[in-house]
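I'd like us to work through together how a protein chain folds, taking it slowly. To get us started, please write out a protein record for me. Label the sequence line and the structure token line clearly, so we can match residues to local backbone shapes. Once you have written the record down, we can walk along the chain together.
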Amino acid sequence: MSDPAEILKRRLESLFEGTQSAAGLHFFCQIGGALEESGMTTLQLAGEGWVLVSAKVGDERDLYSVQLNERDYTRVYEVLLKYAFWEASPQRRPPEDDEVNIHLRLSDQRLGTWNGLQFWDGDMKEFPVLRELMYRLVRLIHAISKGEVDLPDWEAVA
């Protein structure tokens, strides 16, 4: 029996090979937290392109929802495969200074499997794959929210 990371990797590869659709896939990203001063932003991509972005800072909440076309949602899955967050292994630790907490999770509801990772933005210095992925996810969040959601520019983290 393969581990969940290998199962999900093969599942994404089957999408690009054309042997399976994206139905059943679900990606979740949470940046920050409800108790953090900077608030919490989430990005969710369901199956074949339905995307939801939510941002909460204090009592203010914003919600953005779009349906991506096949080319665009496939590109998101390509980015997830290229910058495979599940291959990073940051230590579980308390935050340092003003670090931002990040959760990433990819699941396949058809296969009943998932893989997730929790890390601090400071971990991106040690794991460039996380920095590269977060840079792209933040760009996607900015595009969907038309620049309304303010997030760090993690491309600068080195």
